[in-house]
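Lecture notes, continued. The same structure-token format from the folding unit now serves as the input rather than the output. Read the line below as a description of shape only.
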């Protein structure tokens, strides 16, 4: 029996226009093929479930009718049909039960190595600029009432608007919930803080307790150890946007943190020795400037030396060194 004919018989059965021969043919098909995959002729799950319920009820009625009938020779056929109907009912019940289970969509995980960045286009139209040394796990299709992904590292998000399906970014025990907006998240395991910098729109941030609502050009800084949250203005919005495209600017950032950032984003081995690691630096990697040129410039400003040894860059200075 081909698929079109199957759908034809099912519709006639549900409409009550199927002949006895067509009903018997449909029941025999269910008995033989009921547990196999079959595309029901309905556009949504609700219609399909209703159709299955109606078929199931019809089969139950036929079983009761067969039991109530006299045991004549003719009824022998109905006994067989009733037995077959029981098998079919069980098959349909199992098929219905299996189909009613929530189906978890397939997911995909993207990981970037040090010095590597990737752009990820999600199925809902959202775009993620994934920074170096980061990872994101997202479903290949969003189902349900929310769009949820898991993330670690640094990324810039441009989330497609959908007021009926909020977008939620899970970062460890925290989550950022948005409807449609652009923002940057920095959430590395080795860092004490998670920073969410909002460019446009609105987002809510929570660590599982009470959340905070963030307005554009502000950022939330969450201390993972103390579980405290601070809302601060973004010191340089252009710097946040620039990181999405691989431009890095530092405003009063510790030398040790800059070294870690340059190491991750340019796949370099950098070591900082001495008290210079706690010196604040203000500067940026200019377009076309190599990371080594930048390190030389920074070392000069903070009165440190820059040494290259066996593929390792050492920034040394401060204290008794």
């Amino acid at each position: 029996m081909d698929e079109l004919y199957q759908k034809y018989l099912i519709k006639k059965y549900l409409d009550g226009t199927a002949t006895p021969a067509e009903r018997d043919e449909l029941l025999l098909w269910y008995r033989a093929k009921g547990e196999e995959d079959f595309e029901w002729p309905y556009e949504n799950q609700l219609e399909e479930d209703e159709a299955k319920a109606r078929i199931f009820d019809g089969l139950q009625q036929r079983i009761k009718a067969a039991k109530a009938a006299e045991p004549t020779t003719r009824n022998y056929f109905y006994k067989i049909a009733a037995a077959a109907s029981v098998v079919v009912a069980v098959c349909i019940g199992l098929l219905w039960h299996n189909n009613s289970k929530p189906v978890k969509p397939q997911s995909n995980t993207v990981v970037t190595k040090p010095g590597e960045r990737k752009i990820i286009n999600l199925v809902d139209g959202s775009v993620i600029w994934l920074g170096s040394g980061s990872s994101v796990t997202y479903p290949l299709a969003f189902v349900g009432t929310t769009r949820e992904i898991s993330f670690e590292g640094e990324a810039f998000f441009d989330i497609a608007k959908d007021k009926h399906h909020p977008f939620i970014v899970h970062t460890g025990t925290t989550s950022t919930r948005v409807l449609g907006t652009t923002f940057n998240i920095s959430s590395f395991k080795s860092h004490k803080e998670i920073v969410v910098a909002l460019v446009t729109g609105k987002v809510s941030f929570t660590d599982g307790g009470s959340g905070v609502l963030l307005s554009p050009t502000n950022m939330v800084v969450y201390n993972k150890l103390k579980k405290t949250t601070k809302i601060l203005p973004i010191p340089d919005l252009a710097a946040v946007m620039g990181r999405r495209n691989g431009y890095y600017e530092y405003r009063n950032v510790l030398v040790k943190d800059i070294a870690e950032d340059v190491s991750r984003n340019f796949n370099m081995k950098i070591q900082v020795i001495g008290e210079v690691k706690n010196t604040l630096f203000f500067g940026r990697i200019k377009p076309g400037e190599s990371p080594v040129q930048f390190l030389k410039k920074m070392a000069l400003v903070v009165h440190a030396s820059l040494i290259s040894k066996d593929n390792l860059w050492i920034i040394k200075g401060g204290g008794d060194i």
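Point for the exam: The first strand starts at residue 107 and ends at 111.
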